[in-house]
Every structure is written in C-alpha cells, then in structure tokens.
Please model this.
Amino acid sequence: MSKKSIYDLTHQAMKDQFTAWGFSSFKADQLFNWLYRKKISDFDLMSDMSKAQKSLLNDTYGTTTLHLVERQQSKDGTVKYLFGFDDAKVECVRMHYHFGYSVCISSQVGCNMGCKFCASGLLKKQRDLTAGEMVQQVLYVAKELEPLNERVKNIVIMGTGEPFDNYENVMDFCAIVNHPKGLEIGARHITISTCGIVPKIRLFADQHHQYNLAISLHAPTNALRDTLMPVNHAYPLEELMDALSYYASKNNRKITFEYILLRHVNDTDEHAIALAKLVKGLCAYVNLIPYNAVDENGFQGVDMGVALRFYDVLMKHGVKATLRARHGDDIDAACGQLRAKREGVFR
Ligand code: SAH
Model:
C-alpha cells in the first residue's frame, strides 16, 4: 500500500504526529510553512528539520501525487486542468474575478448522484478523493499564480463529485487550506456545494463551520426535481428545506441556492414564483446559472431575455438573486466534460 500523503494531514494531525514522535508540536507550524508558504514538499530540503525528523517524515509520508495531464486556457482567462493521480483523473478550474482568483476543485473521481443535466455523472464514482488530493489541486494553481504575484483567494467545491458524499475528507481539506499557517484561504471564501444530502447538512449545521453552503436546487417542486435529480427521491424538498431551516437556526449564515436555467424545463414565471416561496424565510440567495451544454443529454440553456425575466420575478418576490457570468465558453468547462471527453464518453 502506498504511503499516506503529507498533504492529507490537518495542522492538528501534524501536531499530534510530531508529539507522538517525541518532538515539539511547534514543528507542525514549520512543516506547514514549507508545504504551503514556500510550497516545497521535499523533506530533505527543509532546513529546520533534524536528520531524525527528515528520516521519520520520509519513512512515513509520501508527498506530491498529482501531475498535469491537460491544460486548456479560455480567451476569458479561465483555465481548465485535467490532473492525474496513479489510478484516476480529475478536473479543476481556475477563474479570474474582480476580487482575484477562484479555484473550483473536484471532490470525487466520478459521481454517483446522477443529475440528468450534468456531465460528471456520465462516469460513475470510482472513489473518493483524499483531503491531500484536493489540497494538491489548489496548491498546483497557487504555484502557477506565484510568478504573477497572485494568490488563490477563493475555493468552490463544485467540480466533479458530491462533497457531502465524502464528508470527512472534504472537511479535512477545508481545515488545511483555511489554516492561518498555510494557504490561509478565509472560511468565508470557501464554498461547499451539495445536491442535498440531508443528514450531512444537519451534521454541517451542528459543527458550526464558517464555510459557505450552496445547495444545488434546480427545481422548485418535487415533481420536477424528481425528474432532474435522483437524490430528490431519497431527500425530497420538504426534508431538504427542514434541514436548511435547522442550519439557519444554528448558524446565522446566508444560504446560496444554485439554479441552472433549462429551456422549457424550469424557466417560467410560475417556476420563479414557486422558487421564491420555497426559499423565503431563509437568508437565501439564488444564483442563476447559465447551462453549459452537455453533448449527450438534450437539455438547452435559456437566452438572456428569459434569464433576466426570471431574475426580475425573483427580485419582485423579495428574493435576492444573481445571474452568474459565463466562464470558459470556448473550452470544455462544463462539469466533467473534459474528463469525459478524455475517457471517450463523448463521440
Ligand atoms: N455535487 C455537488 C457539487 C458538484 S456540481 C452539487 O451538486 O452541488 C456543481 C454545480 O454545477 C451544481 O450546482 C451542478 O448542478 C452544476 N452543474 C452540473 N452540470 C452543469 C452544467 N452542464 N452546466 C451548468 N451547471 C452545471
């Protein structure tokens, strides 16, 4: 079996490890500094580690396991990466906003949620990603930005996979990238997007995390959501909204609802009114997403007029909304598209 990667360790786990070896827990600060500030992973280059410490680290932990397979850059500056590990490939996207760079990472290899409009589900889940494999996606982009004097400002866990189907690893990942001795990405700049795994939303609420929560809703009624998102059979809207009220009662945080506008599917005034009713009372924020066409499934996006009208109806009914800008239109930027192409899912 291959060694656990050093990138899997939270700061706390690193402290525990050094203490267990009989050293000061302060060594964890130094190791974090090497890995995430200096971005050096070779233990032998870490000048403040003793010979004994280097040797223990080398014997116990692996380091970088990620390599670049393919990189596509869009005219608007969006970059899509296909990263490889020994046994799997995952996608990651870098976007440039007015506030800085944002990275969209994958949390699993493939996905079992089976949303009808999504390319990721074309490849079933092969396995969960470890925390370290998620960390390395961010680190790769962070390193690439360094010569530009830029840093990763924001992370969204919206690539391939369902983060709440890989809860522990995702929470470790967030703790690692958030840590002040490391990449120090603010909790409020980390967004976890879920299709609605109710027990994990409740657990997340109980743990009082400061990361942003986004819910992929895409339909305001069970009848419609059932046809788009199989997860709705397991956790129908009443249960989802109950769990979100519970989250709101425990954490005074806004909740983002993602809603892809699909032509002749969920794009009428009635849908907008039903959506407004559904989310009212929560500190809700609806993010209207333009659809990235996936070759095989027949869904279409809406034109700007329809999107603006939907937006207006929501606002009139007292719900804050944004229309998400398109990124990477000229590259394979839809979730799972690049990997699916490489693995021969599309013609
Ligand atoms: N499983 C998680 C995170 C991954 S999907 C979730 O469901 O939230 C991230 C977001 O991208 C979700 O809102 C998803 O519904 C959306 N998405 C999937 N395919 C898309 C496509 N072709 N175009 C636009 N958004 C898409």
Remarks:
- The CA atoms of residues 123 and 343 lie 9 Å apart.
- The two ends are 36 Å apart (CA to CA).
- The longest helix spans residues 131-145.
